[in-house]
Amino acid sequence: HDIAELKRLDLAHHLPAQTDYKLQQTLGGSRIITRADGVYIHDGEGHQILDGMAGLWCVNVGYGRQELAQAAYDQMLELPYYNTFFKTASPPPIRLAAKIAEKMGGHLTHVFFNSSGSEANDTVFRLARHYWKLKGQPQRTVFISRWNAYHGSTVAGVSLGGMKYMHEQGDLPIPGVEHVMQPYSFNEGFGEDPAAFCARAVKAIEDRIVAVGPENVAAFIGEPVQGAGGVIIPPDGYWPAVEALCRKYGILLVCDEVICGYGRLGQWFGHQHYGIKPDMIAMAKGLSSGYLPISAVGVADFIVDELKDKGGDFVHGFTYSGHPTCCAVALKNIEIMEREGLVERTRQDTGPYLAKALATLNDLPLVGETRSLGLIGAVEIVREKGTNLRFLDKEGEAGPVVRDICIRNGLMVRAIRDSLVCCPPLIITHAEIDALVAILRKSLIEAEPVLRA
Ligand code: PLP
Questions:
Q1: Ligand 1 atom closest to Cα of 284?
Q2: pLDDT tens digits for 91-101?
Q3: What is the DSSP code string of 207-248?
Q4: Which pLDDT value is given to residue 394?
Q5: Which pLDDT tens digit goes with each residue over 410-444?
Q6: pTM above 0.90, yes or no
């Protein structure tokens, strides 16, 4: 590849996701990633970089899977595309729906396909409100979500999400979304007894339900572990208590499994780790390991029954709902995950190994906390050891400074405010986890004088 030419064209014509055009110009164009294999990505300038983010929390089976390419190739030759609008469907979406239903288990029996995580949450938004209308409770329109939640970039996604800086662009949220405290103990509950903090976070939800009027609430939505908000792992007991609240007030419980689904927390779905039973779940990313765009919404039997009983109408769908090629690749991806036991391996082996490896960073002066669950984790960077005082409070965010050093040292991680997060492919080995943590250590040590200067 002619990298200089690509960078010139990038600046001239390309607005990448999370556009920061000024930064893109300062950098002289985007970093060009040209190929990848296993857990490594390669840029056009000869650097091999350990992908600690599995792309964007999605390449669960790792890069370079011939079988996924073959599945797409075979399906494209047989039937590349057909829609599901005309009471038609091709074999792959039907088989994939059945496979996902098997993995969800319990009362989540049906699946609605879309292309992205954002669209999945739009589907949830409309379907939940539609359900309550069919039930004769049309006033149940309010969604309760958490600050710092990420549910996507569409109008419903940003509205359901709790990123204030995203709300500012596009004049959002739309009416009918209420945001409450997130269970972020390092921030909101530092030094507090975990059980007391948990009770406080749950009470914040109940207080809001009561303030809005339970009869007006359609659903509570949350990521089992908040990803883009900073890998916020809730205290034990949080999710069962939230589930109990939803049952108490007759509110639908929705889990956004876009990151947590497909093995990330050591179960097929994140809610299974917490032993709760949501009424709808959104999934994307790991469903196809990011090889092709596909998302889905898992729907409980009683919601489907309501559709059946009341005429069956849900006027909703996308050109690419149930896309045969995307579904064929997702099916093959799940087959690979099953065959290689990636979910069990994450739960029993690599997840605990990552937790231990990250914990070795705790001797560093900059590290305030390390936390992880399965193969998703975070390192909190603090200005003063033993406190949760950040660089963010004074000099600006520390995360991006350390992240840039990590990338230079051969590790792709993401900075979220004053923390670094990682979410490597589920195929990662012990040796690769050691390499990941060694680069984090080296980079945190190199960053300290820069941050304190
Ligand atoms: N929900 C969660 C929890 C996510 O992390 C994301 C993306 O990162 C989305 C929804 C949106 O998915 P997409 O970018 O595919 O629209």
A1: 15
A2: 999 999 999 99
A3: HHHHHH-GGGEEEEEE-SSBSTTT-BPPPTTHHHHHHHHHHH
A4: 64
A5: 999 999 999 999 999 999 999 999 999 999 999 99
A6: yes
Instruction: Report CA(233)–ligand 1 centroid distance (Å).
Output: 17
Q: What ipTM was reported for this prediction?
A: 0.99
C-beta separation of 282 from 120 below 8 A: yes
Dist. CA 222 → ligand 1 center (Å)? 12
Q: Tokens in use for 408? A: 């230079």
- Integer Cα distance of 439 and 339 in angstroms: 31
Give the residue among 172, 177, 270, 277 at the shortest CA–CA distance from 218.
177
Both structure tokens of 374: 């399965």
150 CA to centre of ligand 1 in angstroms:
7
| Cβ proximity of 134 and 306 under 8 Å | yes
Interstrand relation of 177-180 and 142-146 (parallel, antiparallel or unpaired): parallel
* Ligand 1 atom 3 nearest Cα: 258
CB atoms within 10 A of CB 131: 25
3-class SS at 204? Answer: helix
Q: How many CA atoms lie within 13 A of 86 on its CB side?
A: 4
Distance CA 53, CA 183 (A): 23
- Per-state percent for the chain, helix, strand, coil, to nearest 5: 45, 15, 40
**How many Å apart are CA 452 and CA 139, to the nearest integer?**
54
Residue with CA closest to ligand 1 atom 13: 117
CA 347 to chain CA centroid, Å, is 18
CB 287 within 8 A of CB 312: no
Orientation angle between helical segments 430-452 and 351-359, nearest 10 degrees: 30
